[in-house]
What does this fold into?
Amino acid sequence: MTDQQQADLRHDEVQAGTTTGLAAPSVDVTDARQNSLWSDAWRELKRNPLFWIGSVFGVVFLLMAMFPAVFARGADPRDCDLTNSKLPPSAEHWFGFDQQGCDYLANVVYGARNSLVIGVLAVLVVLVLGLFVGAVSGFFGGVTDSILSRITDIFYAVPFILGAIVVLRSGTLGRGVVAVAIALAAFGWMTAMRLVRSQVIAVKSSDYVAAARAMGASNRRILVRHILPNAVAPVLVYATITVGVLIAAEATLTFLGVGLQRPAISWGLQIDAGQSLLRTAPHLVLFPSIVLTVTVMAFIMLGDALRDALDPRQRS
Amino acid sequence: MTGADISSYPESTAVAGAPVLEVDDLHVEFRTRENVVNAVNGVSYTVNRGETLAILGESGSGKSVSAQAIMGILDTPPAVITGGGLLFEGRDLLSMSDEERRRVRGPGISMIFQDALSSLNPVYSVGFQIGEMFRAHRGVSRKEAKQRAVELMDRVRIPAAAQRVNDYPHQFSGGMRQRVMIAMAIALDPKILIADEPTTALDVTVQAQVMDLLKDLQRETGMGLVLITHDLGVVNEVADNVAVMYAGRIVERGTVDDVFSNPGHPYTEGLMNSVPQVEAKGGRLQPISGQPPNLAKIPSGCPFHPRCFRRRLGADALPGRDCADDVPPLRLVVPGREAACHYSEEVLGV
It folds into this structure.
């Protein structure tokens, strides 16, 4: 707390001490609408440059995934000409050509869709699993909590990528987009669960829940007004950041040869194919890597902005 | 909402003079795997309209637990109400359904807590939280709730209420936060307000302001105030009657003036002697010897006897009044004064 703020607080006390009698009961409220957590958070978000940078990149990425043809400048990623093999970037073809002589910009743009679908799908599974298991564990406690927490620990013990590799190599799920998303989510939900669990436990026994109860709040109101907002906010932040992390993890799996497979188009596959040609055609690794990095960063920035906005104590 | 006289509350079913809140032989225990802790062992008191009853006691004397039992916010388990009755306006709180009970909290009985910062939800503005009282109980619109919140903040004398209604709890000072809590607690004009150590976390100057505010609000609304505290100074300033608690029992009860000027129980006497006196400047304080009792193993007979310098054991004791064997009941010693001591007359010097 700054000196100025402290001085303000001091001022309040002094004023309160000198005020005698009751002020006029009719006070005109400049903004009659009652603020809620979310409207205040939105106001805060709008002021945060991180949010705008993250959003712009995020929206561009989203549009790329939805309408790749627009961003590919009319090129078809599968329309290849071997005579163009490994040509460097030019004014006509911004990202150059890959080994097969396919337009590389088109390839990178078309890769966005798989990345986004896998990232979002995996995060949804993470959210559902994390919220459900975490809420049950935190709310009921006792034996239920012990059992669920130990199960979570078992998943924690398996390294994220290693677990996904084992699941994907077993072949039972296949090697499609859904399979990769499930494999990633299956070993990525534990942090969300712990977040929710600890929040639910903390809020459940907090003084303000006791106070709300003492003032006649119903169980439903306590759940909706106190427990959920306090539990959902950090999870939302985590989920946003995790979209980025999962997109990177998908690229990693694919690069390692256990994720998506050709003829699918994916940044991981492009980086994998490019690495052997790193010396002769560095742009083949460079462009998908840059786009991947920017995408991951956009989600992390959004997550950071969201965290600041959802915690009133962080606000200036 | 402005200063109202007592007769303007037609919805009150309490007859003038009749107690609004009656606590009758309340027993609360905490059951853990290892042992049973007897936190409240037969507490009885009544609170009338406009009365301020101070419950005075050290930490672990059961004063907060009895308040939580009245509010119905004890964590059960481990806490269990094992006996006694709670009557609010003649209705038995303990036999009510959860829903009926919930409806009493807020408009009937309300409570403020010691630590206002942790008692306010950090993610909502104070105006929203005060407004919630109206939205939850009266179903008013958001807009009206905010208007009412500003009025209430004005009423508890928060400066520039209309500007501060959207501020968050952490942006307020300790005294202001406690005012916000008070605003929430009095929002629905409760008949009884329980204040659990409302000023313990505050500076001394701010303490006085908050107590003045509570007193003024009480005068306006005629609510009964149950003030739980360990601060003798606060009791002396604002309370009408005082009940002194020790080991989950009331050991002495009377008007504040009487009890403070001439204690009728050795424990109260010890408390008074342990307060620094301006006249006795430079002298040594007289603490009460020994430790507060372990509530899982309350001493036999009078729970205070191991620490009591007036105790009479064995041959010294009168028949049936051995401090180590016979539990002293809370009895009328002189008119208007009850004490739970076999030798209270001796303590009083009557």
In short: Confidence is low (pLDDT under 50) at residues 1-16 of chain B. Residues 204-221 of chain B form the longest helix (18 residues).
